From TrEMBL:
Pfam families: Myb_DNA-binding (PF00249)
Native source species: Lupinus angustifolius
Lineage: Eukaryota, Viridiplantae, Streptophyta, Embryophyta, Tracheophyta
Gene Ontology terms, MF aspect: transcription cis-regulatory region binding
Record's GO cellular component terms: nucleus
Protein name: Uncharacterized protein
Domain HTH myb-type: residue ranges: 9-61, 62-116
Domain Myb-like positions: 9-61, 62-112
Amino acid sequence: MGKALCCDKQGVRRGAWTPEEDEALVEYIKMNGHGSWRTLPMHAGLLRCGKSCRLRWINYLRPDIKRGPFTTEEESTIIQLHGMLGNRWATIASQLPGRTDNEIKNYWNTQLKKRLPNSGHFVGSQQPSFSTDHSTIVKTESPSMRHMVQWENARVEAEARLSMESSLLNSWSTSESHPDHFLQLWHSEVGQSFRAIKGKEGGGGVCQSLVSQASSSKLESCSDVSLQDKNTGSSTFANMKQEQDSSYKPKLEDGTAESELGYYEFLDSSDSALNHMLDMHDGEIGFLCESDSFLNTLDG
DNA sequence: AATCATCCCAACCGCAAGCAC
DNA sequence: AGTGCTTGCGGTTGGGATGAT
């Protein structure tokens, strides 16, 4: 892997941007797009490295940047997402139109963190609702948030199971025999439950949409989680949860066992799937939270 | 008014993933 | 498969703004 060294050059300006530089950058991007950030400064007549230009554009000059204080809703979203995702500022920012990861990160570090004692863990009513007990997860504010929490809950449970069974499953290769993990999910019992739910509703477009999107290349690197027990073919979330309750504790960032706060560190391999879920519109997975049968499925 | 402390945020740095060759 | 380049991300820092003494 290469390392960006663009700022090592001599004669490259650093520090605060001047209005003239801002103007030059905006004008150039308006006319030509940013293209290669590496070559942009030269073409735009800026004595800056491409990295600096990119940062300036993304964090400050982009026309769709939202300025001003964070709203209560935004704040709530940040708190909830941070509870689920940790310091994944870019992912959190993707759920807050007009806000940048840098801005959110700063806001968290300067405002929210100090309001939430115990190093970012939540207290009282601000405690994130993500929990290993799905009976609590529906208390989140917005439907989309509930969907995300439910999905994440299911995923962590699956990861818990996988971690426990990993030593037994070395005989099969997840990546080669099942390159598309969403298809695995689709063919699992949970997927069958989804189909059953949608079947009852007379629909199918949503599910198909889910599959077609999930089959895209972006999801090929998603978590190695399999929701289907390949050995028995009879795994359910219920027994997954039983096993999890008895022996599995997710880890905190410092490696200690997780408390009931549900502050998880997620595996990088799950990013694609998670991001995909976060990008879904409410309606696309709305049937999950509206449906008691889905929760029943989780319960077994 | 001067000095010091703290806050806040724009910008930088290093790392890693993705991609092309 | 190996290498180098580009881009994106998260952590950290520098310095201006503001408040306290």
